[in-house]
Amino acid sequence: MTDVTKGQLSARDQHLTKRGLRLAQFTVGYNVIEGAVAIAAGILAGLVSLVGFGFDSGIESIAAVLVGLRLAARLRSGEADEDRERRALKMVAGTFFLLAAYVIFEGTRNLISGETPDNSVVGIVLLIASIVIMPVLAYAKKRVGIQLNNDPLILADAAETRICVLLSVSTLIGLLLYAWTGAAWIDPVAGFVIAAFAIHEGREAWEGELVEDDD
Questions:
Q1: Domains observed in the chain
Q2: How far apart are CA 169 and CA 151, in angstroms?
Q3: Contact 59/91 with Cβ under 8 angstroms?
Q4: Which of these, 65, 89, 76, lies nearest to 14 by C-alpha position?
Q5: Which is higher by pLDDT, 115 or 132?
Q6: pLDDT-derived band of residue 186, with 50, 70 and 90 as boundaries?
Q7: 10 Å Cβ neighbour count for 200?
Q8: CA 148, 208, 36: angle at the middle one, nearest 5?
Q9: What angle do CA 53, 60, 100 make, to 5 degrees?
């Protein structure tokens, strides 16, 4: 980030930083709605994987808020505060671990109790929408990050959005298989897949490896 760290943003970098900020703001708005719908639909249907996906949307919103705050601070001061941005990434990593703990707990409880969830058409439609929208958003973020000399904060945010795509796919497969077969164990197992993603990416974000492994 040659221009960003010298104390004064160039006109080009200021324009790109504003674009990154707008993408973060869109991420917050979209994921708040997506998360609320997913959690409500998941609770009504008793689908732990859908509830877990909703919590992941909330986590992505928190991450986007942190990214947005740091980008707004850059625009005000004309430089990046690397220490604060590193702490922000660690806070994002911690939320991944919280998500994993919740999904593992609920999935294990459902397996032991033998509870049978309902199907959720709303959940399936929501996941399909996410699979369409999230890759476009992730690409836009990655492009901005690369143009800002491989900005680590924006690229990490792009990587997290791509994780949302993977979680959307895995959750959708789980819901479709459950709707097709009626096997109650599929939903908790789909939740465990989400937990595995969360633990892996949380560890990499915590260790600062998420951006290095971006591709």
A1: 4-206 (1.20.1510)
A2: 27
A3: no
A4: 76
A5: 132
A6: confident
A7: 14
A8: 80
A9: 50
Q: At a CB cut-off of 8 Å and minimum separation 6, what does 5 contact?
A: 79, 80, 82
DSSP 10: -
**pLDDT, tens digit, for every residue of 31-47?**
999 999 999 999 988 88
Distance between CA atoms of residues 94 and 59, nearest Å: 10
What distance in Å separates the CA atoms of residue 44 and residue 39, rounded to the nearest whole number? 8
Contact of 158 with 146, CB cutoff 8 Å: no
Q: Which residues contact 84 (CB under 8 A, 6 or more apart)?
A: 70, 73
Using an 8 Å Cβ cutoff, are 27 and 120 in contact?
no
Please report, to the nearest 10 degrees, the dihedral formed by the alpha carbons of residues 114, 117, 123, 125 taken in order: 110
- Which tokens go with 120? 């959720």
